[in-house]
Fold these 3 entries.
Entry 1:
Amino acid sequence: MKAFIDPPRSIPFYLRIGIWISRKVTGRDLLPGKLLAWYPKVAISSGIMEILVAHKDKTLNKRILKLVRLRTSFTVACPFCIDMNSYDHDQFGITQQEYSALQGRITITEVSTFSVREIIAMEYAVLISQSPLLFPQEFVTKLKANFTEREMVILASTAAQVNYWARLLQALGVPPAGFSDHCEIIPRASS
């Protein structure tokens, strides 16, 4: 599978540094950074967003943020995002049954190991990822009862960040990078 476009033949030095860092961190030669070199401003701003997005917080652990990333990835059916965010999901304590629920094979409510906060965070991720954006008052009340304002911003920005990458990468036809060859990827999660 190939992207819709090829990377430019000449990539500015300052972007090559970012691509090198990305390769060092992920262990893979990722195509998105190279494609974004066609317009360096978007490459730089996307890289900054990626660096600054929350991967853990004092009250939102890595697991809940990984669940939000995965739920968003499956909701928007982005093969690259599913691949990237599925990588090492078991290292976050995500069981095979939980992963099946994230994929939409079983409902989230069938899984007893998800906490109430995790379920609400994943529901929020789905609402953020659908069009039109609709947030029923009943849900907002439940969200506010379980998360602080700061936590809501972190959850919303995490889901929005995955949505950004999903739209951008799918618009460029970027294929999966091979992070989760061990996982069966089934896009389209059900609520």
Note: DSSP finds nine helices and no strands in the chain.
Entry 2:
Amino acid sequence: MSEEAKGDNGMEHVEDTASPADSDSAESPSVEIAVSNDRGHRKERTGVVIGDRADKTITVMVERRFSHPLYGKGVKRNKRYHVHDESNACRVGDIVRIVETRPLSKTKRWRLLETLGRKA
């Protein structure tokens, strides 16, 4: 089981020894744990490029439509996001899909996922 030994200070010292059942892994079933490399769910938005003057940065306006909670009327709200565009490929009027990412600058927390086309 375990051995007990008295130290110089009179306190008991307990040493834990492994039992033979713990060392034999053939009897115990092996459990595989699935480890996903996914970084969790990242928010995605679709919007229109309204600015492309900065280097490797575009400004995207995302329109959100919902009904008013009390009156039920349809309401539109717009929000602007600063998005990282590594290749400077997007131009004003492009419809793009953006994804949330780590902070890249003071205001940039989104990156370009893909360009869907031009605004009609």
Note: The longest helix spans residues 20-23.
Entry 3:
Amino acid sequence: MTITAPATTTIASGDDVLRAVERIQGALRENAARAEAEHRVPEESIGLLERAGVFRLTAPVGYGGLEAPLTDQVRILSAIGRADLSTAWVCSLHTVGTYFVGHYPDEAQREVFTSPDTRVAAIFSPGGTLTPVEGGYRLSGRWPFNTGCRSAAWDALAAAVDEGATAGGPPRMLLPLVRMEELRIEDDWDPSGLAGTGSNAVVADDVFVPEHRTLPLMEALGGLNLSEATKDSSLYKAAFFPTVLVNSMGAPVGAAQGALDAFLDRLPGRKITYTSWVQAEAQITHVELASAATDIKAAELLRDDLARRLTEAAETGRDLSVFERAEIRGQCSQVVRLARRAVRTLFDISSASAIQRSVPIQRIHRDLDALSLHAALAINTNFEVHGRVLAGQEAGTPFL
């Protein structure tokens, strides 16, 4: 089905983007099954999202972007996730990628932001090697799970610098920024959940990356910003890794809201098989429905609190303590756990017919299960980081 984007409207704030996204939710929801089948977000959906202003949320205002605070980002990403989690996860990664670019030297930003809607993919896991050459580096490697690579124009890919015989200690890690046309996308994405994200592996074969298109990864985690244009922006002063994590909370909360919508849409008139009961009149339905709705509300409140705390810290110029950073990792996993528990509760009372691919709640259930396994969101890992700091131990990771 071809969907025509609505007429262009002025996009001047996060509220404008949210209203525009709410107008296209039906179209995004209708395209969700197609995204799963095609293993990527359809171009029609990408066009609708671009017209809504989603991809300029974290672009610098100097290039026509919005520099929207996290409090706006998570609401908008939840509105997208309410229609389709895969689509929201791609949007989340694109806004994170654009946020990364706001920390690169201004010369790199001028190359990337030829449009405020430029889409950037990014991946923290080091999958390649940078060999120093005159003026920059030669990059080679392979990066699996590169969400958004199918719809991106640029990719930021973590890689270790090959220092040769002079190396000493752990390798220096950089985020080289590469044009997608210089990378090869492998056709290797065939998962049981989040299929619509198109998180294929990308390969770089001896690609030249100029020095100005690299960002030191460990230093960025500590707050490094190489841009004169954005150094005073509260968005780009926000704690780097916590911003990535909290941005990621929009999609799962939206998916849980979408699951509740899907369940209630099917509820009227449904019978409980092998009984004379109507499901909407059964006590077990009332208890489980209220349980799921309460988990969703708790996830929304924690999502918003996380976004508010980071936004306020950035706006006042206050750095986060190690304790606060570890706490954010733990609480972000709790948001995902609450959302996942709500969806599972609703799926479990949706009857056997819900396993049909034509019934949206089965896809939401699979997609959210898949998202909960993401290394940055895994509850046991993040709770351990949080718990270590609570117990007076070292966090055991630089990703804070």
Note: The CA atoms of residues 5 and 47 lie 7 Å apart.
